[in-house]
UniProtKB/TrEMBL annotation:
The keyword Ligase does not apply. Belongs to the ABC transporter superfamily. NCBIfam families: oligo_HPY (TIGR01727). InterPro entries: AAA+_ATPase, ABC_Ni/Peptide_Import, ABC_transporter-like_ATP-bd, Oligopep_ABC_C, P-loop_NTPase. The keyword Lyase does not apply. This is Oligopeptide transport system ATP-binding protein. Residues 5-255 form the ABC transporter domain. Keywords: ATP-binding, Cell membrane, Membrane, Nucleotide-binding, Transport. One of its GO terms (molecular function) is ATP binding. It is a peripheral membrane protein. It comes from the Bacteria.
Length: 324
């Protein structure tokens, strides 16, 4: 399988009050062509920061300290700022939770789509307009030609998100990053946008990095999943492995916290304790204060990543002991 994105041993920090704190701790993962990788984990675990590192959009107090981020074999961390900028939009496109952050409210949909197509595809105005209509139709927008004359505020949230998807895809990116793109939409529209992304994944030759905290969305869209906890990857596997055979106590906790209406006496079991903040020092596994299985080793050293079944990776001493 052809790898589109390969992130290796990524370490990133934020400087707060002149002190540098690790926000991503040695993260590695990859995405193949026509594959959707979901990144899940509680608020603050580093999902968005991962995307910002890839897009080179970290705020001023953040920096990538070490590791590599390769897009189709080119290590982006080795490129100049200018070269990196040219990747954004063209080779990597991003859709956000709120499409209005990416659309200009003062310009028509048509103007914005055509500008984007002319810039990234090198086409003239007439050709760009034709392609803009094609892409709006591709994302399921009816009467596409007349929509070109509308302003973002004239469209519903679901339609705006479709326009943004059309805009991003029209540049034919190798990687599509979607950061909680359906969180602000109501459930039926959310389902439509997920179905659309699933259909588009099959026909475009890009990989999709999908950020969400919603496990229902993960089940709908993911091929593979990585689970982050406090900036560290604790588990990775296919969507079936993560849902049917979770191994890390944190992943098991996430699964138990999802309501299951099929069971008569199902009780949501929240994960005990609180999520550590960035500045909190924790020796060993960062999940140890909340883990009922934690023993002396867990408080001493960070567990290595082991493969518990083909393609299923876990960083946990309990999983390691179960294997032996
Ligand atoms: N500019 C910043 N300066 C300092 N800390 C930051 C900054 N931006 C984010 N953080 C911290 O980095 C950590 C990771 O944040 P991130 O936004 O990646 O979390 P997330 O998993 O995407 O959460 P959410 O689901 O709430 O969006 C958090 O502890 C957050 O407070």
């Amino acid at each position: 399988m052809e790898k589109v994105l390969e992130v290796n041993n990524l370490v990133a920090t934020f400087t707060i009050n002149k002190k540098e704190y690790e926000v991503l701790r040695d993260i590695s993962f990859s995405i193949n062509k026509n594959e959707t990788l979901c990144v899940v984990g509680e608020s603050g675990c580093g999902k968005s920061v991962t995307t910002l590192c890839i897009m080179d959009l970290l705020p001023n107090n953040g920096r990538v300290v070490s590791g590599s981020i390769s897009l189709n074999g080119t290590d982006l961390t080795k490129l100049s700022k200018k070269e990196r900028n040219s990747y954004r939009g063209k080779k990597m496109g991003m859709i956000f939770q709120e499409p209005m952050t990416a659309l200009n409210p003062l310009l028509t949909i048509g103007y914005q789509l055509c500008e984007n197509i002319m810039l990234h595809r090198g086409l003239d105005k007439k050709e760009a307009k034709k392609l803009a209509v094609e892409y709006l139709e591709k994302v399921g927008i009816a009467q596409a030609e007349s929509r070109l004359k509308q302003y973002p505020f004239q469209l519903s949230g679901g339609l705006r998100q479709r326009v943004l998807i059309a805009m991003v895809l029209s540049a034919q990116p190798d990687l599509l990053i979607a950061d909680e793109p359906t969180t602000a939409l109501d459930v039926t529209i959310q389902k439509q946008v997920l179905t659309l992304l699933n259909d588009l994944k099959k026909e475009m030759s890009a990989g999709i990095l999908f950020i969400t905290h919603d496990l229902g969305v993960v089940a709908e869209i993911a091929d593979r999943v990585i689970v982050l906890y406090s900036g560290r990857k604790v588990e990775e596997g296919s969507v079936a492995q993560i849902f049917k055979n979770p191994k890390h106590p944190y992943t098991i906790g996430l699964m138990n916290a999802v309501p299951n209406v099929d069971l008569d006496e199902f009780e949501i079991q929240p994960i005990p304790g609180t999520f550590p903040n960035l500045t909190e020092e924790i020796k060993g596994c960062r999940f140890n204060p909340r883990c009922k299985y934690a023993h002396s080793r867990c408080f001493e050293e960070v567990p290595c990543t082991i493969e518990v079944e083909p393609g299923h990776f876990v960083s946990c001493y309990k999983a390691e002991e179960e294997m032996q």
